[in-house]
Amino acid sequence: MILLPALLFTVWGGAGRCLGEEGGGTEFDGNIRRFVVATNTVYVATEERLYQLSHDLTPVQSLSQRGVLQGGPSLTDEHFYRVSESDVGNATFRVNVLVPLVQDGLISCGVIDNGCGYCEVLDQGNISNVLHREHIQVGPLWLSNTSVSFPVDVETRVRRETYILTAMQTTKTSCSTGSDVVNLHNTNNAQSGFIFSAVDEFSSSSFKRVGSVQFVDGFQINLTIYLFSNVPSGAKSNKVRLIWLEGKTNKIQTLKLFQGATLSLSGGAEGSRLVASSVIPGGPPVLWGGVFSVDGGTTRTELVVFDISPDFSGQPDTDPDFCSQCSTKPKPNPKTLSPKAVLFRQNNMTSVLAVRLKSWMVFIIGTGDGQLIKLAVDKNYHTACPGELYMANDDHQVFPKILLDPVDSRYVYVPFQKQMKRVSVAKCSNYTNVQACWSSQDPHCVWCGSKKRCTFADDCEDSDWVSIPEDFRQKKMVSSKALKNNTGQITLIIETHLTAGKKVLENFACHFAARSSQLCSRESPPPQFPRCICILSDSTLAAEGLDVAVRIRLGSSQLLERVKISNCSNFSGPPTSALCRQCIEAGCGWSTSGCSWADQGERNDSVCQTIEPERNFSKPEILSITPNVMSFHGWNNAVLSGHNLHEVTRVRIWAYMECTPQESPVWKNVGTSLMFHIPSVNNKGVVKVCVVLPDGSCHGNAEITYLSSPSCTAITPSSTWVSGKRRITLKGSHLEFVESIRHNHTEQEIRPHSNDNNYQSLQVLLYDSPAAENTQETSVFLIIANESLACSTPLTYYPDPKFTSFTSTRTGDDVLITIQKEADKLNMSREELSVWGLQQGRKYTCNVMVKEISNETDNFFNCEIENPPDAKFQQLMIKYGDQTVTLNLKASSYLFHLMLLVLLLIPCIIVVFVIVYRSKQRKLAVKMNQLMEDLELDIRNDIRQGFVDLQTEKADLMENVGAIPFLDYKHFASRIFFPQSDTLMKSCIKDIGQDAVKVQLDDCCQGLSRLIQDQLFLTSMVHALEEQKSFTIKDKCVLASLLTIALHNNLSYLTEVMEALLRALMQQNSNTQPKLLLRRTESTVEKLLTNWMSICLYGFLRESVGQHLFLMVSALTQQTAKGPVDCVTEKALYTLSEDWLLWQAQDFTALKLRVLFAVGSDGEVSEPLEVNALSCDTVEQVKEKILSTFKAKFGFPYSSPLRDVCIEYERDGSFVPLEEVDASSEVIGEVTMLNTLKHYKVSDGATIKVLSRKTHRPVSPQASVKDDENFSGKYFHLIDPDVVEDPRKNPERKKLKLKEVYLTKLLSTKVAVHSYVENLFKSIWGMPHGRAPLAVKYFFDFLDAQADGMKISEPDVLHIWKTNSLPLRFWVNILKNPQFVFDIEKTPNLDGCLSVIAQAFMDSFSLSEIQLGKHAPTNKLLYAKDIPKFKQEVKAYYKQVRDQPAVTDSEFKAFLLEESKKHENEFNEAAALRELYKFIQRYFTEIKEKLDQNGAPTELKEQLHHVKNCFDGLKSCSWN
User: What is residue 1's predicted lDDT score, i.e. its pLDDT?
Assistant: First the structure.
């Protein structure tokens, strides 16, 4: 058995292959001509092969249709014999008719290359077995869409006979007379005239048509044969004709006694053509669905249903278009059939298949752009929303015939040009709950209660199932209505719109629940499927209505329906569509007088669409949408233009028949244009677009067209150079939809070049390749909206071309240049090169010749310079991409004599050289030994100095740090809340003058403030916003901080909201990776927790931790200042971070400067101030150290800022100005060295005078060089630029420096500041008064409680939660950003040091043991020995917190109340509320929908609308 599949696939010969994509199937070696389905086999005829496949399209075998014609005096006597794949044939049998018979024969007819008909009868089980062959014409000779063929039965006097009916447009050939359009051919030799004969027992049958005809479809039901055709009527019009034939008596009677009718669309549209058709099973009556083209082409098509029940009551053979006994007598017009309904309008429908499920009709529709659409229709011809079963990426048309799998009716066969797909007729498994299964409106699907999933009806083995109703389409699965009788009694009726199995009917129940204990009176009748009735025991309704939860049992499944019973008379006001919808949604009815009880008004919401709204604004109009054609992936940043667009909030996109609309928010709305994203869809075609106003109404009727996805099939050239900018051509289809291109080695997206050739732009795309770091093979991706599509072929990066030399030759008046280059694989073309000859400063264009260049063997190319003044060119400029290469001329032939002379002198030179060489070698050896000794001595000194520093390092840094410059609370909090937005930071805190004033909120802000005090609203709003893809992480952080400010005066409520959101987040992560909870700030509540910790721990930070943090920062700053700091790169000799280590520093000496400050304008100076500096300090660094020492000594800053200060140096009794750069500055190449104290030869104890530019005009008005935009490119300090320099000029700067030698400086710095780091860490996890801060204990207990509730017993998870919430979320933020706490500036070097300390801090909380080796990073090695001790302290801290008595609710609420009062009125609450409303306005619809999902009361939604109306009514606001 193992050999059989292998044998079959060998026979298959690789001509077809299985497809692994959606809608599995097979691809063939040529275009499909015909295909048919037998009992369990599919037969497919292509151009040169006939395939046999199993019903699931598994290949069985294939038969070649190539062969040879041999012998015979006439064409019809020649015999066709098949040959093997390797043999040469002279003929091909092309199949035009393929008919399977009940008697296991497969009839295959067509034409051979000699132009004559040919037929074979093949064994259905083994098509390689030919049972009969004959030269005869059956059906058309040439494949066309104007013919049909199918088997029919005729009830003769003796028995029922099977014939093949062929209907075609006939043409005369040498082998055919071409007379009859419809023929009946025998199917076996037992029939009169033998097999394939069209002659009857007595005479030949005849059915003719004078003129052209296109047959579209045909079939037989019982004995009635139906034939459909398009018949021209006039120059441009067309008739769709139906012919009935009755299969009785014999062939002649069958063809003679026919009747006809004309199928006319509504309005009698002349020119309508039939494209495809399918009979609808389940008659009588005989219903039939046809796809009609209503514009004469294929663009506008409609699916129409007709009753085509046969009518044989008329006189036979009196049809004006067809005849059996033809004559010239005028004939009456046939009867006209009108459609029962137009079901569906869709562009470019090409095929249709109808099936019936109970009372539902289901249509499977194919389109010209490769889609398969499913349409369910009830018995009243109401259609459900169409669904998409399959969508091809390309535009291959679905053939006119779609057939059902005879073995498994859950699949259909869908033929394309070279492919056959087997596609499921439903996607039941996509729907995950009973509501989704019902909402699909798919008659194939049921919710199977026993399996708890949506399945095909046949897959639900018992009767515990529910499905959509059998007879009509409903919009809701459960509806409710409220009735009130004359006595005032209120009745609530719940109705389910379902079809159900027996178990569901037997186990149907309803349970009504409300706040009142007894909702339904005892008079309420028992539930009876599909209805439940509750007579309210109390008929008095509160003003806000009554919320009722109805739990419905459907067998083993349950539904929860939330209903709000409202007093219908409360819905009052001017009649608007919005009020009407509210009325009907509340279970009431709408009448001309307004809202009433359900039994007194209309319950269908379609009545609301007839109400014309009252508008106080102009109606929007859409003029254009750019682009209006795109792929089904959508388009980002589309532009909609029109009039009166100011009020537009969203753009709505309707697909089929207003089903499943999608909405996109708008931005950059200027009234005449706006921008929005066109969303992706699951189908191709034309969709409607309208713009949505705040009241929900939609205006405008524009269209956009979705087409197939772009594809990239070829890349030319297939390689590029690593420097990039090579012009690349992509070939494929629909490339006009590509927004940008990306290579997988880079994140850079490249915009394609515009293409003026409209047709070519669809198939070709041009762009410039990005650069790469090395040679590699890269994938090319097309970026369309939010999708990335890979090209089928890669692009290879090779090294840039290398041009080696050139020669020039005079050719007449012109000069021919031959350029040599190294061989490469780039295959450059002449268009990619630009060449110029350089002569006496002028450029002459060199025209590259047509010859292709730069392949593996051809490594030169030619160009020509026209009429240059001189034939000699010393230089060439060659440009490719954005690279330019300059070539210099090399000496050549004129050196011949010189070479000869050199050869003669060589022996002499060798002798002299040997003598000189030996002498030089001795001197060089001596010099090298000296250099090595010096180098060794330098390295020894560096290592010794590092050892000395390490052993003598003392923590003597703190002499006087002055007062600690704490920021006040509101500035601390605002920097935590808005670290990346200065605008929001400034707008949400009040100026100092406002602190004591309580600003009264306006009505809008008060309304919004009340709204967010409702926890259901606030949590619903947060969840609604976070579900939107356009709501970024930055938006989430801003939202959290705005809420913190808006609720700062009610921290107790803010805590409750945070806990609710955290519980929801924990439930979200509990089933996946609980250890990742709170690790990153990816949700609103995580940022909210950071803010909450900052508020609650500010007092602890200031009282217990702040001093230690400031001392540590000051220690780091002072330790850094003890050694050189490069002014340009800001790297330092003393640092904790290897990345910021200045290991290239030269020798330096410490200096003590005597600094005088100029007082007044008459030359008076202050008492001298001693300032420590280094000889390598720049002038700017000296100023910084002077002002820093001044502030530390006197406790207040110097009166002038740094940029207004200049300094002078006393030399020989006069003062010389010190400048950053002057005429004496050292210059290397084009880079200037900043002046240092060493440059000015300032000695130890020297006097420096400080002047203010405001009171003492400097000698040179030079501004700081740091203001230069290219500061780092123009200047250097301690790190030399990459410029070649004579080492003799500065020998001390050219000493060899090794980075590893200076790594001890990291340890020196660590030793110097270690005590401060230890004190800081202990202050953080210390416990003043034996208790942790209240907020820490409270939150850790909250985490413990949640872990218990979620049955998480693993202690590591709790440890990680606590670590992520406190050290990671709060303390690390403080450690890395001391500028949040103090009024200081953070330098890059200080930032690097703090990062190392913060890493050590977090490693102390880690549960994992890190194995460190010699290759471990230095930031890990520095604190490796300290981490174990820190970890023990952390464990003890966590245990102390856990063992501490719990914080009572009243105690913690009192703490929160005190914190709120401490900082009352410090924040601009109104500004925060207005910023908050911007989010509500942007996502208003989504928030409203989330409130509906969460069962929010009507009052809450009304309050939301009130706030919206209030804000929208503001004509001009400072915040807008």
Answer: 34
pLDDT at residue 935 in the model: 63
Burial class (CB in 10 A: 0-12, 13-18, 19+), 1124: buried
Whole-number CA gyration radius for the chain: 45
Quote the pLDDT of residue 501: 92
What are the residues whose beta carbons fall under 8 Å from the beta carbon of 328, sequence distance 6 or more? none
Residue 1211 Cα distances to 552, 1148, 1182, 1183, 1207, angstroms: 99, 21, 17, 18, 13
Structure tokens of 1001?
């909120």
Alpha-carbon gap, residue 1463 to 1473, rounded angstroms: 18
Q: HEC string of 243-311?
A: EEEECEECHHHHHHCEEEEEECCCCCCCCCEEEEEEEECCCCCCEEEEEEECCCCCCEEEEEEEECCCC
Residue 285: asked if its preceding bond is cis (omega within 30°), the reply is yes
State the DSSP code for 1178.
B
Closest CA to 1117 of 1319, 1395, 1391, 1303: 1391
Beta bridge partners of 625: 640
**Stated pTM of the model:** 0.58
Residue 10 has pLDDT above 70, yes or no: no
Model pLDDT for residues 1149-1200, shown as the tens digit of each residue: 899 999 998 877 666 788 889 999 999 999 999 999 999 888 888 878 888 8
Sign of CA dihedral 960, 962, 965, 966: positive
Residues 474-496: what's their mean pLDDT?
88
Determine contact, residues 150/162, Cβ cutoff 8 Å.
no
Look at the chain and count its residues.
1520
**How far is Cα 750 from Cα 741, in angstroms, rounded to an integer?**
5
CA distances from 961 to 326, 1103, 1118 (A): 119, 18, 10
CB neighbour burial string for 227-239, b if at least 16 within 10 angstroms, e if fewer: bbbbbebeeeebb
- Please give the residue that has the higher pLDDT: either 817 or 1067: 817
**All residues at 6 or more sequence positions from 316 whose CB lies less than 8 Å from its CB, including other chains:** 256, 257, 258, 259, 324
Q: d(Cα 276, Cα 214) in Å, to the nearest integer?
A: 12
pLDDT at position 1283 is 57
Q: Is the pLDDT of residue 1218 over 70?
A: yes
Higher pLDDT, 1213 or 506: 506
Phi, psi torsion values for 762, nearest 5 degrees: -75, -30
User: Which helix (H) or strand (E) segment is 1360 a member of?
Assistant: helix 1355-1365
Residue 1100: closest CA among 888, 1326, 763: 1326
Task: Specify the DSSP class assigned to residue 1371.
Answer: I
Whether residue 993 has pLDDT greater than 90: no
Tens of pLDDT, residues 32-41: 999 999 988 9
Q: What share of the chain is helix, strand, coil (3-state, %, to 5)?
A: 30, 30, 40
Is 65 in contact with 94 (CB distance < 8 Å)?
yes
pLDDT, position 14: 44
C-alpha dihedral, 909 to 913 to 915 to 916, nearest 10°: 130
CA atoms within 13 A on the CB side of 385: 16
> Please, which residues bridge with residue 778 across strands?
795
Tokens 């090595």, residue located = 932
Q: Does residue 346 sit in helix, strand or coil?
A: strand
pLDDT at residue 1273 greater than cutoff 80:
no
- Residue 727, pLDDT > 90, answer yes
One-letter amino acid of 829: S
CA 1508, 1512, 1517, 1518 torsion-angle sign: positive
Could you tell me which residues come within 8 angstroms of residue 163 by beta carbon, excluding any fewer than 6 positions away?
151, 152, 153, 154, 184, 185, 186, 187, 191, 251
The two tokens of residue 189 are 């030799």
Q: Which two tokens stand for residue 1509?
A: 């109306």
| Residue 698 host element (H or E) | strand 698-707
